[in-house]
From TrEMBL:
It catalyses: meso-2,6-diaminopimelate + H(+) = L-lysine + CO2. Pfam families: Orn_Arg_deC_N (PF02784), Orn_DAP_Arg_deC (PF00278). Homodimer. Keywords: Amino-acid biosynthesis, Decarboxylase, Lyase, Lysine biosynthesis, Pyridoxal phosphate. Belongs to the Orn/Lys/Arg decarboxylase class-II family. LysA subfamily. Pathway: Amino-acid biosynthesis; L-lysine biosynthesis via DAP pathway; L-lysine from DL-2,6-diaminopimelate: step 1/1. It comes from Candidatus Cryptobacteroides excrementipullorum. GO terms for molecular function: diaminopimelate decarboxylase activity; pyridoxal phosphate binding. This is Diaminopimelate decarboxylase. The modification N6-(pyridoxal phosphate)lysine is found at K48. Specifically catalyzes the decarboxylation of meso-diaminopimelate (meso-DAP) to L-lysine. Transmembrane segments: none annotated.
Length: 408
């Protein structure tokens, strides 16, 4: 975690910024690599969770593959050391340009999400005299028991191919001369907390679907269960490494192995969420009619998850402990500066008595944080700072007595 005691005059560092604890990322990757060997699963990091080059390079160096959802992600993954033959490419709306780029790069597989897409990829491969490896994303109609915006495996969602098209799918694959069918792909949602129950159910359902297609004469060698493993947002310190083993076990115990068949997984959030924090400062303390507000300099433009999903992030005051009054606590509504009422970090959060200039951490911000940042309100992008890289902290420019100015 970000440690202010190692920084001289921390009151003056420029905020907000994303801080990445690379030692924690290493420990997470150690666990993931060890367990993927133990359970014989192939792991593709879901690049969309965090696309910082330093992070991608660290992950590719450990031999993991990549799961991409755009042409630019495929290009970024290759740039950062992922071999094309370990890159899979999903997404319901791949453009011709994106398909062409991935075809010529020679990726491991297109995870196709509609019959129409398979048809187009086959036509393009044929036109350019190339072959496309294709896996088909199936919608297994499983409730992941997570937020409705991050549920992807129900029939009401736009993802994957549903059962009423299975027969047409088999016949289409038979007619496509420029594709090599590799297997089936699934991804039922994100931030899944009931790991054992949901993934055991997914594995059993997948096993039935695989049998269905094999009965129809297709050989399903690659079975990709997607990502979705949840992390502990309430307690990022004791839950710093996600429960990868519970996940791997739920799947491998409920999906019978077969020679020549490989299980693939695509964790995103569970790899990078806990290593990132958004570091921000208190600009103002305001007493409202019924509550106290802490107004931070980071907002929904930097990290949209609370505004978009009502997501919970733990908030810590990192600098209060350097004051004698540290033990005093107070409830605050912690908000950002953006002109939207949804720009709220948390309501009724009990924190040490906080003052202008305090440095705060929004925890578990490594996944779906920096990648979703925008310049709404023409705010600047928060830069990334890495724990293993010397950092010349830029100074916070204030025009008033900085630091711990007393409350008015
Ligand atoms: C987003 C996504 C993932 C990663 O999901 P996490 O919840 O971050 O693990 C994996 N596969 C596909 C196809 C995705 O779209």
């Amino acid at each position: 975690m970000f440690d202010l005691s190692s920084i001289e005059r921390f009151e003056q560092i420029a905020t907000p910024f994303y801080y990445y604890d690379m030692e924690l990322l290493d420990r997470t990757l150690d666990t993931l690599v060890e367990l993927s060997g133990k359970y014989g699963v192939r792991v593709h990091y879901a690049v969309k969770a965090n696309v910082e080059r330093r992070i991608l390079q660290k992950i590719s160096a450990r031999g993991l593959g990549a799961d991409c959802v755009s042409g630019n992600e495929v290009a970024r993954a290759i740039e950062c050391g992922f071999p094309p033959e370990k890159i899979v490419f999903a997404g319901v709306g791949k453009s011709d340009r994106e398909i062409y780029g991935a075809l010529t790069a020679g990726i491991e597989a297109f995870n196709c999400e509609s019959l129409h897409e398979i048809y187009v990829i086959n036509a393009m491969a044929s036109m350019y005299g190339l072959r496309a490896r294709v896996a088909v994303r199936i919608n297994p109609n499983i409730d992941a028991h997570t937020h409705k915006y991050v549920t992807t495996g129900l029939f009401e969602n736009k993802f994957g191919i549903a059962s009423h098209e299975f027969d047409d799918l088999v016949s289409l694959i038979g007619r496509c001369g420029s594709i090599d069918f590799t297997g089936l792909h699934f991804h039922i949602g994100s931030q899944i907390a009931e790991v054992s129950d949901v993934f055991s159910l997914e594995a059993r359902r997948v096993s039935e679907i695989v049998s269905y297609f094999e009965d129809k004469g297709l050989t399903v060698n690659e079975v990709d269960f997607g990502g979705g493993l949840g992390v502990d947002y309430d307690d990022p310190d004791s839950g710093s490494v996600a429960p990868f083993e519970t996940w791997f076990r739920a799947i491998t115990e409920n999906f019978p192995p077969r020679p020549g068949r490989h299980i693939h997984l695509e964790p995103g959030r569970s790899v990078v969420a806990q290593c990132g924090s958004l570091i921000t400062r208190v600009l103002f303390v305001k007493s409202g009619e019924t509550k106290n507000f802490l107004i931070l300099d980071a907002g929904m433009n930097d990290l949209i998850r609370p505004a978009l999903y009502g997501a919970y992030h733990k908030i810590e005051n990192l600098s209060a402990r350097f004051r004698p009054s540290f033990s005093e606590m107070q409830a605050y509504d912690v908000v950002g500066p953006v002109c939207e009422s949804s720009d709220v970090w948390g309501q009724g959060r009990v924190l040490p008595l906080s003052v202008r200039g305090d440095i705060m951490a929004i925890r578990s911000a490594g996944a779906y944080g920096q990648v979703m940042a925008s310049r709404y309100n023409l705010k600047d992008f928060a830069p990334a700072v890495f724990s293993d890289t010397p950092w010349d902290a830029p100074a916070y420019v204030d025009y008033f007595a900085s630091g711990h100015a007393e409350r008015v």
